[in-house]
Please model this.
Amino acid sequence: MNGTPGVRAVERLVPRIREELGVDFCVVNGENAADGLGLTPQIAEKILASGADVITLGNHTWRKKEIAPYLAVINLLGQLFLAPPHGPWEVIDDLVAEARQSTPVILVDFHGEATSEKVAMAAYLDGKVTAVLGTHTHIQTNDARVSAGGTAAITDAGMTGPHDSVIGVITELAVEQMRTGMPIRFRTAAGDVRLEGVLVECGEDGRATSCELVRVPLEAPAGG
Model:
């Protein structure tokens, strides 16, 4: 989610969506909730109170160091273009093995830039986890699927926030920074706020049976 508009969308839409779709477990990526950079305890409490069961993060995790006590969820950070201290391929087998000791239903939030890396990870984990859901690019991709081994996957689940923007940033500011190369203080946009994500269904054995895109506007379109 991105900034205050994204938080507002979660607070208003998640309770309704959980009821309408019969959601048993809700995961929210809160990576950009605090004005586009990281997550604060105060915002985390709002997200959890809205109906999220857990919150995942990404490359801006440590922008707000006070969030450390809330970090009880593990998600992968891609190594292409993000350069984490440890690559996801080094740790994923041990993480999956550890999770499998507690539950057959395992969801991986893979926060990465490169589509190839996320597709490759989903292929590698096919049949080993319930879902590999990509995050980070803020653009919902059209490849929601369930692979042969029973793993749901999507390259990017999308952005909950203002879509009249450049991935959540006021368009003019993003364009100016790209055109001039000069430092610009980004601010979160406000228009066309949507909640985006995916709905994954699975059996008690943890094998996914469906993976469908979710896209809900915060406000009904004019004339709708």
